[in-house]
Design a protein that fits this description.
single chain, mainly alpha, two-stranded antiparallel sheet, 2 strands, globular
Length: 178
């Protein structure tokens, strides 16, 4: 019962990530990006949720692969589009799984994960980027899993590697925006 209360508080706290924070502040602050990554906390909480590690449906995993040479030749909008497409794919799978769980620790974790993914989507879609509009598209054929641990690991890889590399590439804008 106490664990459920803690998870509920964490879920509420992660509901909206500082509504005053602008996308450019996210780009310019590695600390802000690190603070938004809740995967380590969620992995720890998952260890305390009996029977929640196995999902009842297959969830498609985000595209985390990054080919450095081809990545460098993509526009900022194309890079964002890849990441946004992967986040949308993942959030749809999480929503679908969450709709099957009525209550309990697993449902709270899935709600928190969904909120966190939506925070990233909100930040990324509000970024002001130059160049032609690009329709978000996946850069891989998504794999699927029924393991919440695997979902969390893939999500962590997406935000701590691919998204972080994208943000570092945008840091040149930070001096211009201050």
């Amino acid at each position: 019962m106490a664990l459920s209360r803690i998870l509920l508080l964490c879920m509420i706290a992660s509901e909206v990530w500082d509504s005053e924070t602008k996308s450019t502040e996210f780009v310019c602050s590695r600390a802000a990006r690190k603070a938004l990554n809740i995967v380590p906390e969620m992995s720890s909480a998952l260890s305390n949720c009996n029977g929640s590690a196995t999902l009842s449906t297959q969830v498609q995993l985000p595209c985390t692969e990054l080919h450095a040479a081809s990545w460098e030749h993509k526009s900022e909008r194309e890079k964002r589009g890849e990441i946004v497409a992967s986040l949308r794919l993942l959030v749809e799978g999480v929503k679908s799984e969450r709709s099957l769980r009525m209550a309990g620790c697993g449902a709270l974790l899935l709600q928190r994960l969904e909120n966190n993914i939506n925070n990233y989507l909100l930040i990324l879609t509000r970024l002001q980027l130059s160049g032609p509009v690009v329709t978000p598209s996946l850069s891989c054929v998504p794999r699927s899993t029924q393991s919440l641990r695997t979902v969390l690991m893939s999500y962590n890889l997406l935000i701590s590697a691919k998204l972080e590399w994208f943000m570092v590439g945008l840091e040149h804008k930070c001096t211009n925006s201050r």
